[in-house]
Structure of LLM class flavin-dependent oxidoreductase:
Amino acid sequence: MPLVVILDLAVGDGLTLEQAHEVAAVAADVGVSAIRVSDGPPGELALLDAGSVASYLSARQPGLHWIVDAPTTHNAPYDLARRIASLDRATGGRSGLALRAGDGDAVTAAAADDLPKPGLPVDVSGAARPNRWAEYATVLNQLWGGGQVAHEGRFYRVSGALEEVSPQGLPLLVADGRDDLDRSAAIALADVLVVPRIELVDGGDTRLTEAVARSGRRRDQVALLARAGIVRENGRTTASELARWTTAHALDGLELATTGGRDELIGVLKSVVPRLEPATGSTLRQVFGLPSPIVVG
């Protein structure tokens, strides 16, 4: 059975843009399902903007699918929604966003300096980041869904509409389990949840299934993936073990991460990915086997 196989690509921190292009070319050859482009830890200023990197690479590898990492920190909701919608349109419905939980941004602070609302606890040491993420994700879905948005919440005040229409209905939205999000809330808002592999030990797959049920969504409306740190040695054995482990935990796929540079990434792509039978599709939603969303307007 085909699996969704995502390759993590951190550009700007040890991997140059041209090296990333080389890796993307190999990824296209071996049929990786999507590339997730990141630019550093959430909340830190990036050396290279992940969205710009994805736009640059997608023009050179138009057959690939892209997931852009971006934190709430430094990114105003309307601006980020517009940038991802534009990339999704330009790639023919092959793009999505991995929204990372962080802090606020200068645009929001300037436009709504009375937020958070009086009487509600402020964001201290990241304690409110899951709530900020949930409100941000809600705004993204509203903007991508079409129509005029007039949102006034605890952290954000957003008014306006996007002219971009996604070829896949809505750009794909990914939640990252490393951000300590409430899983049921994250699954209710996102199309994909990626959890660290270690979280699936000792009944973690059951907890994931229960979180889907609590979210009010059907299992076929959300994709569950696990992040796996791997190396290229013994690629055949690694691929076989990953496939069995994914099936045992009722997952839809894997996100492959390695701390190595260009050579390590290419080695993983060539030795591991083809043996996993990566899922394919004309849009990113089709790759994940997700139904088309109902779009307003």
User: Anything to note?
Assistant: Confidence is low (pLDDT under 50) at residues 41-45. The beta strands are 4-10, 34-38, 66-71, 95-100, 149-152, 157-160, 172-176, 192-196, 223-229, 253-257. Residues 4-287 form a domain with the TIM Barrel fold (CATH 3.20.20.30).
